[in-house]
Amino acid sequence: xxxxxxxxxxxxxxxxxxxxxxxxxxxxxxxxxxxxxxxxxxxxxxxxxxxxxxxxxxxxxxxxxxxxxxxxxxxxxxxxxxxxxxxxxxxxxxxxxxxxxxxxxxxxxxxxxxxxxxxxxxxxxxxxxxxxxxxxxxxxxxxxxxxxxxxxxxxxxxxxxxxxxxxxxxxxxxxxxxxxxxxxxxxxxxxxxxxxxxxxxxxxxxxxxxxxxxxxxxxxxxxxxxxxxxxxxxxxxxxxxxxxxxxxxxxxxxxxxxxxxxxxxxxxxxxxxxxxxxxxxxxxxxxxxxxxxxxxxxxxxxxxxxxxxxxxxxxxxxxxxxxxxxxxxxxxxxxxxxxxxxxxxxxxxxxxxxxxxxxxxxxxxxxxxxxxxxxxx
Length: 377
Hints:
The chain has 12 helices and 8 strands. It is α/β, with parallel strands linked by helices. It folds into 3 domains: 23-97, Rossmann fold (3-Layer(aba) Sandwich); 102-196, Rossmann fold; 199-333, no CATH class. The protein starts with a helix and ends with a helix.
């Protein structure tokens, strides 16, 4: 026992010196959720932050890691987000990556060991994630990601391990706040919710989706598709436009939660199309390319383009129908407003008549009373 105590004491003395010799780098993709987690870790560990495009390990990122002199590299994200690290990076690599962004953020938060507070934000809400990063950096606390209507089990488990008593919740327009709060209350004592302009957030998401779709359209010539990569990108672009149409329609109806969700989906589809055009398609995205290549092989380019054109025509028809519905809805609103105004005018006229009658009656009654009282005097 005494020998063990002596060894422990020696290790305590040696550990700080050894820790100083380890230079750490954080390698992360430019995915907003993973990037926020990576930046927090870099600041916590005083490490070099190296960013690579999602779905690939760039030569620039490898060179930056080598130049940093890092002897230990933490990779934030799974092998789909940041591939090939174990092969191309020649120093010790430890991956902090779960099956999705929610588990990845939860695993990274576990490096805090204990914390009194954490920031909670929806994993698909890029605007919320930027705000969460700003707050988390200021407080030195981790970020945990939730879905729009669920707190994943990995996040619940992390709360239990961290022992956090408080959370700052940054809501998203499509978030089921009641359910999220109820599930968080099972693990924390205090929830402070940030005020968010849902209409503004939805409008920003729609504008971002439009810009991303426009970028892909500028790169993709749908009349000159020759490969499965281009066909897969074109199909994703059609889906992106469909989601954007649904977002715009929901926004016009004042349904900002659905508008936000559809706009995020539109932007994600467009970003996937852009990645495919860049010949980056790991994991799930590879299946889009494989399906497109199979169709080209079995049915030929003409048939594939015909189907793509039909999809575009259906989308345009749906857009026209949606526009007609919006115009009809606006006309009904105007009619109700006119009817309401006419009704208000009629009610105002009736009120004036009633007031005139009441005043006349009161005046007459007063005069009669005065006459009676005068006669009495």
